[in-house]
TrEMBL record:
The lineage of its organism: Bacteria, Pseudomonadati, Pseudomonadota, Alphaproteobacteria, Rhodobacterales. Transmembrane segments: none annotated. Keywords: ATP-binding, Nucleotide-binding, Transport. GO terms for molecular function: ATP binding; ATP hydrolysis activity. This is ATP-binding cassette domain-containing protein. SMART domains: AAA.
Length: 258
């Protein structure tokens, strides 16, 4: 069966002054998959994510998401696509002056016409879905641990019940136990909600535990795509050292023994 392509990127170029981050980059994301995006620091993973979700305008190229040419679309058509997506940024990007519940409600306030009681109930459902205790809804982000903050960021990304979830380094800064718990949560949510996930990460354990496919960014483009095992055969120095290094062996060994 051929998987439906929910994001198709063609000929993407991103430049900042004289710095060319992406040049003629192409990538497909399939419905229902968790795609891990890796690459050396500065290879343009976050810029790619930001281009897809409309936070920055690429210099050239085409991005089709959920059937809409998002770069060429009207603002209304772009908004109709963006309401079907959710984004979790690296630091959670929570509003510090709002409680967790108010943070989760924020996209609903902006994008949905639902009454306050329904909005609160939906927010509390998202908070429960990410494994936070009910009392966390009343807390401010500053009162949360790092792991809880990540979960609150995830609850907000799930606010609008998205089809596609974008995660930028979701386990960065977490201790290994919290990171592993986050991986487990992601696996359970992607199954129960039928999510497609675009996951930027450096975390080999997360790649191994959650991703169906991996895309490697290097030399301004997608150098290779494939499973974690397939990455070990890619003929490139960075890919070799990343996927055949001791940390990769440890991640694969843990997966093999579980
Ligand atoms: N707003 C900006 N203005 C100028 N240059 C930028 C801007 N955003 C990103 N860049 C540059 O684009 C390049 C890619 O950055 P990006 O943050 O996407 O890398 P990354 O692969 O996500 O790195 P890391 O793994 O360290 O997070 C870097 O050289 C960065 O300095």
């Amino acid at each position: 069966m051929v998987a439906e392509t929910v994001i198709a990127i063609r000929g993407l170029t991103n430049r900042f002054g004289k710095t060319v981050v992406h040049e003629n980059l192409s990538l497909d994301v399939h419905r229902g998959e968790v795609l891990g995006v890796v690459g050396a620091s500065g290879s343009g993973k976050s810029v790619l994510l930001r281009s897809i979700v409309g936070l920055m305008a690429p210099s050239a190229g085409q991005i089709t998401m959920l059937g809409t040419d998002v770069l060429g679309a009207s603002a209304a058509d772009r908004a109709a696509v963006s309401v079907r997506t959710g984004v979790m940024f690296q630091d959670g990007a929570l509003f510090s002056a709002l409680t967790v519940r108010e943070n989760v409600e924020a996209p609903m306030r902006e994008r949905l016409s639902v009454d306050a009681v329904t909005r609160r109930a939906l927010a509390d459902l998202r908070i429960a879905m990410v494994g936070l205790p009910a009392r966390a809804g009343d807390l401010f982000p500053s009162a949360l641990s790092g792991g809880m903050r990540k979960r609150a960021g995830l609850a907000r990304a799930l606010s609008l019940d998205p089809e596609i979830l974008f995660l930028d380094e979701p386990t960065a800064g977490l201790d290994p136990i919290s990171a592993s718990a986050f991986d487990t949560l992601l696996n359970s949510l992607r199954t129960s909600l039928g999510l497609t996930v675009f996951l930027v990460t450096h975390d080999l354990d997360t790649l191994q535990a959650t991703c169906d496919r991996i895309a490697v960014l290097a030399d301004r483009r997608v150098l290779a795509t494939g499973t974690m095992a397939e990455m070990r055969d890619v003929d490139d120095a960075w890919v070799r050292s990343y996927f055949n290094g001791p940390r990769a062996h440890a991640a694969l060994a843990v997966a093999g023994s579980s």
